[in-house]
Design brief:
317 residues, alpha/beta, Rossmann fold, five-stranded parallel sheet, 24% strand
Length: 317
């Protein structure tokens, strides 16, 4: 697993002669390009797929006006996703139809990709996440999941950046993170049925229901939070006073959650697999630093082993 987060983008461009160049652009800018059939576009956008942006060709719908209509539909369904327009003439939005200019954030050409780079930096990777933090979160979470699901094999995937606000699964947990360098939330999301299947396979929990799922997710959340606090926060956050808050909005019908910020979120995906049956649990972890984020002040806490021995956390061999 690489420590450099990537971002998934939907590529709406059906020019075969351009696809190789667009693939190279995606690889060079840490983007994972995805394609979709035109008749499935809206269904995909209404699903819970995590995306960072839309790369749209100006004549994707057969004409500039048709492409503009598609862009408007995208903006209606997923207004949080930036739409970046590929043009054949000039890398600006100056002469495109007004309704298209209103919903696109930038334009580029294959001859001049600098506007694309600026848009990626501004709208997708606008928040810097230190490699040590990304690596540490993965290590902490993997250790907790391995301890909680001893009969399942944990696997992790490349971390990625998302701009959408889609909730995965039916159950999620939230816990605040506060320190001198960050203030926000960690969120875990999963599917109830998959966790129930794993619990019911355990002879110690044969008749598990949603309460056991809730309890398990809460325990995992607390363990990750405790390790995160011990490694990156210490006691600093406990003495800080932060009066500012923003409302968190949850729309269960639309599987949507908003933290009152447009900042991209750091997302991790883990899978836990039963190697005998092939059953799988998917767990999504998001870090939302919506209230404060100062990566230049980030430090990993170095613990003195003598202090840990004195506290009883370590014993002399």
């Amino acid at each position: 697993m690489t420590e450099q987060p990537v971002s998934k983008v939907l590529v709406l461009d059906d020019h075969p002669e351009c696809q190789g160049a667009i693939k190279q652009l995606c690889d060079a800018h840490h983007l994972v390009g995805l394609k979709v059939r035109k008749n499935r576009l809206m269904a995909v956008l209404r699903s819970n797929i995590d995306l960072g942006a839309i790369l749209l060709a100006e004549d994707y719908g057969g004409s500039a006006m048709a492409s503009a209509e598609i862009a408007l539909q995208i903006n209606t369904v997923r207004p949080e996703l930036p739409i970046i327009l590929r043009r054949t003439s000039v890398p600006t939005l100056d002469d495109v139809p007004e309704m298209l200019r209103r919903v696109c954030c930038a334009a580029y050409t294959l001859q001049d990709t600098s506007p694309l780079q600026r848009a990626i930096d501004e709208y997708i990777f606008s928040v810097v996440y230190p490699n040590a933090l990304v690596r540490g979160i993965s290590e902490i979470t993997q250790n907790v999941l391995a301890a909680q699901f001893k009969t399942l094999t944990p696997r992790w995937h490349t971390p990625y950046i998302v701009r959408d606000r889609i909730i995965f699964g039916e159950v999620f947990s939230l816990i605040p993170l506060e320190s001198s360098w960050c203030r926000g939330y960690m969120m875990l999301q999963t599917e109830e049925a998959a966790v129930l299947e794993a619990l019911n396979a355990d002879r110690h929990v044969p008749d598990a229901d949603f309460r056991e799922v809730n309890s398990l997710l809460g325990e995992i959340t607390n363990l990750i939070w405790g390790a995160f606090k011990n490694r990156y926060i210490g006691d600093v956050g406990a003495t800080c006073c932060h009066p500012i808050q923003v409302p968190i909005i949850v729309n269960h019908r639309q599987k949507y959650i908003s933290f009152g910020s447009e900042n991209p979120q750091l997302c991790f995906r883990y899978t836990l697999t039963d190697e005998r049956s092939g059953a799988e649990i998917k767990l999504y972890q998001r870090f939302v630093f919506n209230l404060s984020w100062s990566p230049e002040d980030f430090r990993e806490i170095a613990h003195d082993s003598s202090e840990l021995v004195a506290s009883g956390e370590l014993e002399l061999f």
